[in-house]
Amino acid sequence: MTQRPAAPGGGRRGEGTGQGLIYAPWERAFDRIVTPFEDFIHRQTTSGLLLVLAAACALLLANGPLAGLYHQVLELPLGIRLGDWTLEKTLHDWVNDGLMAFFFFVVGMELKREMLVGELAAPRQAMLPIVAAAGGMVAPALVYFWLNPVAPDARGWGIPMATDIAFAVGVLSLLAARVPRALITFLVALAIVDDLGAVLVIALFYSEQITLGWLGGAAAMIALLMLCNFAGVRRPVPYFLLAVLLWLALLNSGVHATLAGVIGGFTVPARPRYDPVAFSTQVRRLMARFDASLRPGEGILVNDELRGVVKALDNGVVAVQAPLQRLEHLWHMPVAFFVIPVFALFNAGIPLDGGTFLTSLVHPVQLGVIAGLVFGKFAGITGASWLALRLGIGALPAGTRFAQIAGVSLLGGIGFTMSIFIAELAFTAEPQLLVMAKTGILSASLISGLAGFACLWWLGATRRTSGGR
Fold first, then answer.
1. FRET pair for 105, CA 20 to 30 Å: which of 98, 172, 249, 339?
2. How far apart are CA 168 and CA 181, in angstroms?
């Protein structure tokens, strides 16, 4: 705890202002201002580290003395009963179908924000990551399908299409001193477009037999969500309740239930109640009232006028922020620090038999996943980017070189979270193929991460040596 000189009125003097209570360094709320992008990068980096730890724990549990208990926990049945209605799933399915809906909710809000005000809002600025992401989805799928043209192996063609944003951004953030900031922005935009592509692939190709009645109910819930948006409803509770009903409808319709998260995220309002000018005027008026109500030696606890002003300020701070902005910030931390690591813990636990591991590397499914993520992603992203630049429909991010785009394309082969999710959908009825796919995902992610890091580190070093930066 940091000690401060005593201030008038019995408080302790804060740094800079000479007034205000500061009990510890982490309580300096007004001194720390970060942009939303900086906050996003910090959380993705931390989430990537937690993801590595969770995956390592899953591998240890699945291959150690607790392997039996680990699998028993995965298959533990849990259900909800309301009268005669029952919904029962294993704990593993609740994580994949239920908990991951919150992950897709954040993905939906990120996509909407990027399309409205982010890297995907300006057409020319957005074209390069959009084209690069498209190439980075098509090429890996073709590589996989070339090696696995016959069912059931062929169902895994969507596995190598996805890039894990947390892992990829985490690796690139370690090189922040050697790469331009615009390169990180490019990778984030590419990964977000990649997420959209993965969502569409899940919806169109990895859904079960469609039940039209439930699909009609889902359409009605979507219509109500849109109506709330157009009507100016900004409280989150109606959206949450309708999204839960949408999740139930999609769960029974045959369309994967986690898509309810993406749709819910897209319907969150992006317009605040106050515009910045009105907010500024209101804050100045309230602060004048706050200063006029101050009484020396008296804290806010016993001053009703001060408490009323602070409450009005608090309401104004909420109203000047768009619900999309507030909910994305609110949910990003629990998703990044809890949902994704739990998903990794429940899905990365694959048995590793040293005697058969090398033999399994030549299995078409595992080979297809590795080749798709490592070589397909590199060729697709690099080739599509080169073509976009050649045709003049895109521009390199400020301060970057094309060689660095190629280095980022290697990081695109880190396909952990979404790739495992698609593998679970593709090979639900083929446990042996699922193990092969997951082993390929882990191997390819490791290879791509190390190769991308080494390439971008070397490019940064050569540029410094030549005096480029």
1. 172
2. 14
> According to the model, what pLDDT value does residue 300 have?
77
Q: Are residues 181 and 303 in the same domain?
A: no
Distance separating alpha carbons of residues 163 and 183, to the nearest angstrom = 16
pLDDT of amino acid 375: 96
- What 3-state class would DSSP assign to 364? helix
DSSP for 142-201 reads HHHHHH--STTGGGGGGGGG---HHHHHHHHHTTTTTS-HHHHHHHHHHHHHHHHHHHHH
Question: Helix, strand, coil % (nearest 5) of the chain?
Answer: 70, 5, 25
Report phi then psi at 324, rounded to 5.
Answer: -60, -45
Clarify whether residues 88 and 180 are in a common domain.
yes
The domain containing residue 289 runs over which residues?
274-319
Do 44 and 179 lie in one domain? The reply is yes
Is residue 297 in some structural domain? yes
* Residue 215 within any structural domain of the chain: no
Q: Same domain for 338 and 313?
A: no
Domain CATH number, residue 41: 1.20.1530.10
Buried b (16+ CB within 10 A) or exposed e, 307-340: eebeebeeebeeebbbbbbbbbeebbeebbeebb
Same domain, 331 and 369: yes
User: Which residues of the chain carry a pLDDT beneath 50?
Assistant: 1-34, 468-469
Kindly list the distances between the CA atom of residue 417 and the CA atoms of 99, 184, 216, 342, in Å, as whole numbers in the listed order: 13, 20, 30, 11
Is 347 contained in some domain?
A: yes
Q: Are 439 and 360 in contact (CB under 8 A)?
A: yes
Tell the burial category of 159 from Cβ atoms under 10 Å away from its Cβ (0-12, 13-18, 19+): buried
Residues 278 and 377 grouped into a single domain: no
Cis ω for the linkage preceding 152 (within 30 of 0):
yes
Q: Is residue 222 part of a domain?
A: no
CA atoms within 13 A on the CB side of 346: 23
How many separate domains does the chain show? 3
Q: Are residues 303 and 381 in the same domain?
A: no
Termini Cα distance of the chain: 40
Q: Three-state SS for 56?
A: helix
CA angle, corner 55, sides to 51 and 61, nearest 5? Answer: 145
The CA distances from residue 250 to 288, 349, 391, in Å, are 52, 28, 41
Q: φ and ψ at 437, to 5 degrees? A: -65, -45
Q: How far is CA 290 from CA 11, 43, 210, 303, 313, in A?
A: 19, 35, 59, 11, 10
Q: What angle do CA 318, 320, 325 make, to 5 degrees?
A: 75
Structure tokens at 432: 């042996």
**Distance from C-alpha of 132 to C-alpha of 115, rounded to nearest angstrom:** 16
Residue 469's pLDDT is what? 43
Residue 373: φ, ψ to 5°: -70, -45
Q: Of 131, 166, 162, 74, give the one whose Cα is nearest residue 444.
A: 162
